[in-house]
């Protein structure tokens, strides 16, 4: 192989076409209002970067620059760098003043600020002076910032040991919550969720990250995904105080709060949030109470206490578990579903045969290393929910484009 190709753009022939497409996409969309248009433009821009970049630049950027940037941001979150930068309306600040406020060696901080500037994560306003940009400002909120320590301290040890774990298992897929790259990377016998239960700081950051994950994405109840009025609200029978919707494993309630806000006028029934004790304890009880959401501790492997609800909602739950454990989780819900009336709404990625988004593929790999689990294709969902769980899949509502769909199921009526 002639190594000179490492210094040549990866796909120079596509550059003129990509630039034309970018220009026409950029002028034909309202980039603030049109999410799909903006994502198409972003995808095209990434294709242009990939075409223009040389292999050498890709290697150096991915291995060196991105990792140095990632760990610098995580460190910045730890020490409050971004909050300090955002103080006084984000007015530009000198490195020595920032270092003094943070109790940091100025030389170390200056080198970090320099790299974050080079990576376009903060702005340099003059010599030794820095100001936040939109990205940096967003890192002052834990829902954005806490993804960094969560990945560094919880998720990266597993994925960084994937190669070793696989090599000791003849490259077979992990299928257990207690023997996988997570347990290997953390040198623990605990599953990832048991580990969270014993590490409250990481658990809190994880919950913040789950809240931040959903920001700016269409919610499952958006008309482009699942027609809630027609499929859920219209048939709801509120005769004996039956619940309208139970969010099983709903974290601190972000999905139910958003659902309530969207349908406040039409909602008549009970909304119930269930999760493990530590998560329910950290939920915003007052905020939930004001809008009437009941937050209760429930282990989804045990008997479901809310019987005959109109909807049971599982968001990013089944992708954490192998099929056998999913059958147990779904089985506990199926036992209390009213045939022909109750719906199980599984909010998960439905992996397409081609054109899959990185939003689904990265998560699939993390599900493998953290839980020995996976994101599923439509065939895999049908096999799990119909063949193994005995439900009827009424419809798969799959918006694609890196957004989770709803797999709507019921218990069939036996005549
Ligand atoms: C990936 S998070 C998804 C949270 C939420 N549904 C969302 O989409 O933001 C998985 C959730 O399952 C909860 N969980 C794990 N094991 C559980 C169990 N045995 N019973 C109830 N909830 C559990 C976790 O505490 C966590 O909140």
From TrEMBL:
The keyword S-adenosyl-L-methionine applies. PROSITE patterns: SAM_OMT_II. One of its GO terms (biological process) is methylation. Residues 183-387 form the O-methyltransferase C-terminal domain. It comes from the Eukaryota. One of its GO terms (molecular function) is O-methyltransferase activity. This is S-adenosyl-L-methionine-dependent methyltransferase. It comes from Schizothecium vesticola.
């Amino acid at each position: 192989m002639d190594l000179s190709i490492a210094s040549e753009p990866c796909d120079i022939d596509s550059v003129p076409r990509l630039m034309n497409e970018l220009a026409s996409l950029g002028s034909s969309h309202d980039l603030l209002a049109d999410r799909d248009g903006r994502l198409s433009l972003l995808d095209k821009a990434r294709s242009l970067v990939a075409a223009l970049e040389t292999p050498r630049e890709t290697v150096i950027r991915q291995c060196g620059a991105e990792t140095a940037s990632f760990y610098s941001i995580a460190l910045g979150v730890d020490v409050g760098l971004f909050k300090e930068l955002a103080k006084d309306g984000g007015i530009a600040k000198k490195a020595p003043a920032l270092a003094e406020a943070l109790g940091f060696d100025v030389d170390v901080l200056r080198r970090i600020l320099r790299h974050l500037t080079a990576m376009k994560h903060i702005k340099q306003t003059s010599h030794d002076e820095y100001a936040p940009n939109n990205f940096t400002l967003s890192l002052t909120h834990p829902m954005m910032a806490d993804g960094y320590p969560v990945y560094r301290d919880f998720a990266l040890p597993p994925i960084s040991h994937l190669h070793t774990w696989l090599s000791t298992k003849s490259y077979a897929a992990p299928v257990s919550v207690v023997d996988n790259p997570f347990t290997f990377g953390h040198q623990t016998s605990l599953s990832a969720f048991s580990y969270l239960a014993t590490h409250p700081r990481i658990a809190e950051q994880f919950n913040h990250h789950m809240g931040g994950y959903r920001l700016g994405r269409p919610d499952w109840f958006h008309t482009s995904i699942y027609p809630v009025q027609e499929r859920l609200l219209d048939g709801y029978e509120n005769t004996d105080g039956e619940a309208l919707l139970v969010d099983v494993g709903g974290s601190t309630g972000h999905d139910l709060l958003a659902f309530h806000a969207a349908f406040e006028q039409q909602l008549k029934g009970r909304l119930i949030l269930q999760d493990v004790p530590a998560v329910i304890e950290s939920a915003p009880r007052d905020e939930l109470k004001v809008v009437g959401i009941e937050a209760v501790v429930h282990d989804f492997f045990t008997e479901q206490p809310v019987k005959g609800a109109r909807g049971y909602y599982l968001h990013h739950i089944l992708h954490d578990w192998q099929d056998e454990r999913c059958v147990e989780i779904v089985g506990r819900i199926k036992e209390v579903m009213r045939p022909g009336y109750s719906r199980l709404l599984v909010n998960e990625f439905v992996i397409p045969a081609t054109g899959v988004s990185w939003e689904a593929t990265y998560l699939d790999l993390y599900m493998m290393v953290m839980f020995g689990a996976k994101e599923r294709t439509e065939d895999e969902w049908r096999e799990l929910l119909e063949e193994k769980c005995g439900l009827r899949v009424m419809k798969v509502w799959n918006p694609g484009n890196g957004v989770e769909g709803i797999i709507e199921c019921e218990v069939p009526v036996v005549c």
